[in-house]
């Protein structure tokens, strides 16, 4: 049963659209990027780049496919104040 569940999960992972994080090494380690149509939690130590990766994903999702994006929309929930708008520039 465990092997069947793993095979099913792998098939779903292969079929789902991915959003690139903009770094080939990270994308490769994430099997092509972050899966879309799902909720992803990013955790790590302070200063490890979590916010920067998330902001990059928000922008990548909105780019047209001709620029490597998904031509979609995204929702970013940031629970601290102030929002790091300077990092987007």
Automatic annotation (TrEMBL):
Domain RecA family profile: 15-89
Entry-linked InterPro entries: P-loop_NTPase, Rad51_C, RecA_ATP-bd
GO biological process: double-strand break repair via synthesis-dependent strand annealing; resolution of mitotic recombination intermediates; t-circle formation; telomere maintenance via recombination
PANTHER family, per the entry: DNA REPAIR PROTEIN XRCC3
Domain of life: Eukaryota
GO cellular component terms attached to this protein's record: Rad51C-XRCC3 complex; replication fork
Entry-linked Gene3D superfamilies: P-loop containing nucleotide triphosphate hydrolases
GO molecular function: ATP binding; ATP-dependent DNA damage sensor activity; four-way junction DNA binding
Protein name: DNA repair protein XRCC3
Annotated organism of origin: Trifolium pratense (Red clover)
Record Pfam families: Rad51 (PF08423)
Chain ranges passing through the membrane: none
